[in-house]
Write a structure and sequence with these properties.
This protein is of the alpha/beta class. Helix content is 52%, strand content 8%. The two termini are 42 Å apart.
């Protein structure tokens, strides 16, 4: 496949990407019935994204670590043993039959993380119990006085500062010279000196080991995806991943507490850094989704929720750069999928921005009232969410069925709606998850009239 140039003549339109999604190359379906099921599911998703009425409401729960508990294996097993990962995901998707697959790539490779001595997260069996999901360990991995270094040269900052702090095996890379110093003949030899140091060479060997482990992992995940498409007719939804620029700074560079203080102590530095991340975030989404079958780029929204910052700060620090990333991805033919964590009741009038093309985004809400969302999103964007984890864990199947029917009655009758969970499912009663999926499929059928 020819390389695409970001923003250039070779960038595909959404219609082209949607066609590739619906008619995937290199897939030999097990039967005509499976192929038909796959194409119908993709068409439902395309219709709902573009604000048409599909044959029925797509049912796409946001799946976390639940398949492993359901299959009776630990999360640690799934992150290290790809045979067990396949067994669990295969069992979940066979038994529940959602309209989108749970991808193995979500969980990452424990082998890769262990080789690199990853410090930003605790993962199953390494800091959290073997049967629990991974957890972020926030800290000030970027110091308050390093904004200028980050903004001036993000790649250099990541290589020589950030990555050595969060990947213990790469700590010696902090000794490297700035690679942009290599300009003339005399500078070449001097710049190579750190690569001769034993600890730097050991770090490079760790990178090679991690690369080999990563290839083993991605090959296993790709084989699973082909299996789920060709034998179950299940499309993948998440084709790529990126982040809101403010979250890129606040989540894992500065940490929540520090970045919220930085808004007051050095607002210009925060704004400059967020602006610098806009092209990087667009490129991350393009690069991760470019060779995927799905044209959808997943963007979890963390620090823009009502409880994190004022409306003024949201419009100053968070929204302008997120909006730029959304528009940038749409121009490349992708569909940004905002996973809106927390509540956005105070943000709805801002995010329904007329500069964002209608029918080119997905918004799945956690705690925002979807009736209020519908008032603003009708004719503008696809939305979903609002099936709470607490209901799936502690409720009854009848309560889930009632909740799903009420959601569909309230917001799902006119198209542009996906039935989804408000958060990823790490735990649930099996009968409750069945009730959600089955009720959505049965009650969410649109009449032909």
């Amino acid at each position: 496949m020819a390389n695409e140039v970001s923003g250039g003549a070779h960038a595909r339109t959404f219609e082209e990407r949607a066609a590739r999604w619906k008619h995937p190359q290199g897939i030999e379906f097990a039967s005509a019935a499976v192929q038909d099921a796959y194409e119908r599911r993709v068409q439902m998703l395309i219709d709902v994204i573009t604000l048409k009425k599909p044959e029925r409401i797509p049912v796409c729960p946001g799946m976390g670590f639940y398949p492993f508990k359901y299959a009776g294996i630990t999360s640690q097993d799934a992150m290290y043993d790809y045979g067990k990962l396949a067994f669990a995901l295969r069992k979940y998707q066979t038994d529940f039959s959602p309209d989108s697959m749970a991808s193995g790539t979500l969980y990452g490779s424990g082998k890769v993380l262990e080789i690199l001595d990853y410090k930003l997260y605790r993962w199953p069996g390494h800091g959290v119990p073997a049967d629990e999901p991974y957890q972020c360990v926030e800290d000030e991995y970027m110091r308050a006085d390093e904004y200028t270094a980050l903004t001036n040269d993000p790649s250099d900052f990541f290589l020589r500062k950030y990555l050595p702090r969060i990947l213990g095996s790469l700590a010696p890379l902090s000794r490297l010279s700035t690679l942009t110093d290599i300009l003339e003949l005399p500078s070449v030899s001097a710049a190579m000196i750190p690569f001769g140091l034993p600890d730097v060479q050991q770090a490079l060997r760790k990178l090679l080991d991690a690369g080999n482990a990563a290839l083993e992992w991605i090959q296993a995940c790709q084989e699973l995806e082909r299996e789920f498409i060709s034998t179950m007719g299940l499309p993948g939804v998440m084709g790529g991943f990126t982040k809101a620029p403010f979250d890129a700074i606040g989540d894992t560079l500065r940490g929540t507490r520090a970045v919220m203080l930085d808004k007051f102590r050095q607002p210009k530095a925060v704004l400059a850094a967020a602006g610098r991340f806009v092209p990087l975030a667009i490129d991350a989404g393009v690069q991760t989704a470019r060779n995927s079958r799905s044209p959808i780029v997943f963007i979890p929204l963390h620090k823009g929720a009502d409880s994190f910052m004022s409306a003024k700060d949201f419009q100053t620090f968070y929204w302008p750069t997120l909006k730029a990333v959304i528009i940038g991805l749409i121009k490349e033919g992708f569909i940004p999928y905002m996973f809106v964590e927390g509540a956005y009741a105070k943000r709805l009038d801002v995010i329904t921005d007329p500069d964002i093309p209608a029918g080119r985004t997905i918004w799945v809400f956690d705690q925002t009232d979807l009736r209020e969302v519908k008032k603003r999103f009708s004719g503008w964007a696809c939305f979903g969410g609002n099936v709470p984890s607490s209901l799936l864990i502690a409720g009854t199947a009848d309560q889930v069925r009632t909740h799903v029917k009420q959601l569909i009655d309230d917001v799902g009758r006119d198209g542009g709606y996906i039935l989804s969970t408000g958060a990823t499912v790490d735990d649930a009663k099996a009968e409750n998850l069945h009730a959600m999926i089955d009720t959505g499929k049965e009650y969410g059928v649109y009449s032909s009239g």
